[in-house]
Amino acid sequence: MSLPNIPDIEPHITLTREEVINLLLSSIAMEEIGLSHLINAEAEKIQKIISKDCLTVKEAIVTQESVEKILRNIIKTQMLLQFKLEDVLKIPTLDCDDCDCDCDDCDCDCD
Known about the structure:
It is a single chain. The chain starts with 16 loop residues before the first helix and ends in a 12-residue tail after the last helix. It is elongated, with a radius of gyration of 24 Å. Helices cover 64% and strands 0% of the residues. By secondary structure, the protein is mainly α. It has a domain at 17-89.
């Protein structure tokens, strides 16, 4: 069995350091928003279950275990996002002193 053939695609995208950092921060924020929607859905699940008139102990336990599993996975994802955020915040910025340029002819984006 052979591997799939990937076409040679060269999108010429040029981004400044600041744009890259902003995109990374935006992606982390979007993931956090997605996780908040999952947390809200789990809260709605709990509210629906406890509003039942004849809630059994078994139903409550099954729901609790389901919510716990989802929340554990959300917490794991949030920890990874925290690591990503810390790494993004450590990305050094360039100053004119760092690149020794006159800011007229270079691509350092320090102007």
